[in-house]
Amino acid sequence: MSRKLKKGYFVRGEFVAEGSERDLELKRELKGTDEQSRTDLKRESTELQKLGEDLLTLRADLMARLNLTDKLKDAVAEAKRITNFEGKRRQMQFIGKLMRLIDPEVLETIRIALTEQHSGSARENLALHMAETWRDRLITHEDAFGEWIVKFPDTDTQQLRALIRQARKDAKPEKPGEAVRHGRAYRDIFQLVREHLLGTDTEDDPA
Q1: How sure is the predictor about 6, in pLDDT bands with cuts at 50, 70 and 90?
Q2: CA distances from 192 to 1, 67, 77, 159, 162 (A)
Q3: How do residues 30-68 score in pLDDT, each as one tens digit?
Q4: Among residues of the chain, what percentage have pLDDT more than 90?
Q5: DSSP-assigned letters across all residues of 41-83
Q6: What is the DSSP string of 140-204?
Q7: Residue 147: its pLDDT value, please?
Q8: DSSP code, position 86
Q9: pTM for the structure as a whole
Q10: How far is 142 from 148, CA to CA, in rounded Å?
Q11: Residue 119 above 90 pLDDT?
């Protein structure tokens, strides 16, 4: 049984099947325009514009690492100062144009810096949440102290025990019906716990 031949044509010794990607590419070239390329350029321009906007939120220490031109640095600093909506919009457009002149390697370092900032913020937020949970458990549950020491054996146990005792003492209302007070020990436990959590992975939830 003979195979049905594909419809197509030869270009410079190459067989091009009708409807193939190569066929569409050649037809775009014949038209003198490339719709796909124009779409890609627009997408790239939008992405660079957004990257420029994100630069305004980057921490100073991360910004200092980047090999940005003085013109772009000044443009970003100016955009941070502008409060007028229209003025801000025009400045961001200008930053977008400058972003299109940056080498791909530098663009990648900007993306890495933004990712690092985002990851750091997420980790700090998780540590804050877990520190609050651990603090409350340490004060209200007797067995929480032992669990904490197992996870963080380098903790100053004497200091933590003293803080827990003081926090429990402070939490007792002087008169029946009064609201619970939180003294300095309550805040110190939070700081101690948070520092340990930030110094390690914060994936183990104490709940």
Answers
A1: low
A2: 80, 37, 37, 10, 12
A3: 665 555 566 766 777 788 888 888 899 888 888 888 888
A4: 31
A5: HHHHHHHHHHHHHHHTTS-HHHHHHS---HHHHHHHHHHHH--
A6: H-TTHHHHHHHH-TTS-HHHHHHHHHHHHHHHS-SSTTPPPP--HHHHHHHHHHHHHHHTS----
A7: 93
A8: H
A9: 0.45
A10: 11
A11: no
CB within 8 Å of 25: residues ≥ 6 apart: none
134: which strand partners?
A: none
**Could you tell me if 170 and 186 are in contact, meaning their C-beta atoms sit under 8 angstroms apart?**
yes
Residue located via tokens 């013109």:
71
On whether the CB atoms of residues 105 and 68 are closer than 8 A, the answer is: no
| Secondary structure of residue 205 in the 3-state scheme | coil
Residue with tokens 């390690």: 200
Residue 101 burial (10 A CB sphere; 0-12, 13-18, 19+): exposed
- Which residue type does 192 have? L
> Would you say 152 and 196 are in contact if contact means Cβ atoms under 8 Å apart?
yes
- Quick one: tokens of 75? 């443009």
Per DSSP, what are the bridge partners of residue 17? 8
Q: Which two tokens stand for residue 107?
A: 């663009």
Determine the residue type at 26.
L
Determine contact, residues 193/138, Cβ cutoff 8 Å.
yes
Question: How many Cβ atoms are within 10 Å of 77's Cβ, its own excluded?
Answer: 11
